[in-house]
Amino acid sequence: MNLPKLIFSIQSKAQSKKATLFIVGGFLRDKLLNRESKDIDFAVLGDSIALARKVADGLKGAYVGLDETTARVVLPNLQLDFAKITESIEKDLQRRDFTINALALNLSTGEIIDLFSGLDDIKSRTIKVISENSITDDPLRLLRAVRLSCVLGFKIEPKTAALIKKHFGLLKDVASERVNYELFEILKIDRCAEYLKLLYDLGLLSLLFPEMKSLPEIGPDGYHHLNLLDHSIETVRQLEILVEEIPIFPDKIKEYLAQDIAAGHSRLQILKLACLFHDLGKPETMKIGEDKTSFIGHEMVGVKLVSKIGTRIRLSGKEIASLKRLVANHMRIGTLIQGRIITRKAIFRLVRDLEDDLIAVLLLSLADRLSAVGQATTEEDIKQHREGLKAILTEYIKPEQPLKPPKIVTGDEIMERFGLESGPLIGEILSVISEGWIDEKVKGKEDAFILAEEFLKPIKN
User: Fold this and answer.
1) What is the dihedral of CA 300, 303, 305, 311, to 10 degrees?
2) Which whole-number Å values give the CA distances from 110 to 2, 23, 106, 160, in the listed order?
3) Angle at 329 between CA 324 and CA 332, to 5 degrees
4) Helix axis angle, 344-354 to 379-397, nearest 10°
5) Which residues pair with 74 in a beta bridge?
6) Which residues on neighbouring strands pair with residue 41, listed in sequence order?
7) Is residue 401 scored above 80 in pLDDT?
8) 364-391 burial by CB neighbour count: b if 16+ within 10 A, else e?
9) Ranges of H-type helices in 330-378
10) Which helix H or strand E contains 235, and what residues bound it?
11) What is the Cα–Cα distance from 427 to 425, expressed in whole angstroms?
12) Residue pLDDT, tens place only, 251-305
């Protein structure tokens, strides 16, 4: 096994401190899989804190004390953790989560310690817990099993899957920040849709999001060939396919999707959540008629639900606002396209209302359309939706004709000119002025004031 020169430097420092050093866990696993790893965990038979300080000094890294026996050294693009072995390396490995992570390399002898056949499980690409206690001791491992399966492309072996189903309820007691991390690591993967279904089958998805429990009860209809749960997951899958095959402005859109919204979460990760949640309001709004089933207003019910979810899993205000916009507007694009009313003014209103979420709403709308191919859906419907999306994107991204109006007047100027107080009315007037600009009725301040006065006449009368 070829190890970085850095490790031999650390080993020499351990020898000078009369400590025995082991590399443990994910770094070994990833090395055997030819995967890049930015974290190295060391188990230290000796003074782990003193060794970590010496390594930090020698490598000019940042030293971070984690507790009395564990410390971290942070280097550019690399993190080193040093943990003291309290009993023996064998006992330390027994307390780990999965067999593929329970390997240790003795840097003094070059021996790999493999007590639980982790090497065989790496070869067979299998996720297997060391024991039932591995889960009950730290229930986050219920979710981590799926995350590792997703990231590595490994299968969870049947006994481990059965233990997850047995103990899935323990996940509710895990801190939301820890759950959030595992969830977003899954959403980061290019093809995560099948693992969202796995989360559901194991009982974990509906535990995290009880709002999804009733989705499988709503079956296929004229436009939908799947029940509502499978449709929601299929929408994620169709989005992931779209992202790989973006037909127009691919570089700009991929750059957009990679943008960090908050907390290291990308627009694409939030968009995948929106795909998963876009129809959450349907169970509450379902009305069964003689000819068809309707879900009038399900978007706004969905907005309330995703707001609660976002707060519960500790998303930032910006992430929650984006989720709400996406769910609230996911039907709007289809309405424009079906009504054949994709005018520059209609697109301007989209830009005004959706701001930075416009591209995400467009992709959600098409993914939703592609994931519903019941008997009532025609090839012409899908073709029309694709062409409509291209038309909106082309108009939106054209650099020579910006759709964002210049700031012609401010709210303060409107209040001063018409003797108004601050409030929602000022926002309405500014919107009217903006639409006037897109219609070329407003070219300067005086035009804006004239339009504002016309708007205010019926209100004052």
Assistant:
1) -160
2) 11, 10, 5, 31
3) 175
4) 80
5) 62, 79
6) 24, 81
7) no
8) bbbbbbbbbbeeebeeebeebbbebbee
9) 332-338, 344-354, 358-370
10) helix 228-244
11) 5
12) 889 999 999 999 899 999 999 999 999 999 999 998 888 777 888 999 999 999 9
Q: Measure the CA angle with vertex 162, ends 144 and 197; round to 5°.
A: 60
- The label of the residue with tokens 């080993």 reads 11
| Exposed/middle/buried for residue 183 (C-beta within 10 Å: 0-12, 13-18, 19+) | buried
Enumerate the β-bridge partners of residue 60.
Answer: none
| Torsion on CA atoms 96, 97, 103, 108, rounded to nearest 10 | -30
C-alpha neighbours within 13 Å on the C-beta side of residue 315? 23
Residue 129 pairs in a beta bridge with 98
Residue among 173, 190, 174 at smallest CA distance from 182: 174
Residue 223 CA to residue 16 CA, distance in Å, equals 71
Q: How confident is the model at residue 400 (pLDDT cuts 50, 70, 90)?
A: low
Backbone angles phi, psi at 243, to 5 degrees: -60, -35
Q: Where are the beta strands (DSSP E) in 46-129?
A: 62-65, 70-75, 78-84, 103-106, 112-114, 126-127
Q: DSSP labels for 263-329?
A: TTEEHHHHHHHHHHHTTTTHHHH-EE-SS-EE-TTHHHHHHHHHHHHHHHTT--HHHHHHHHHHHHH
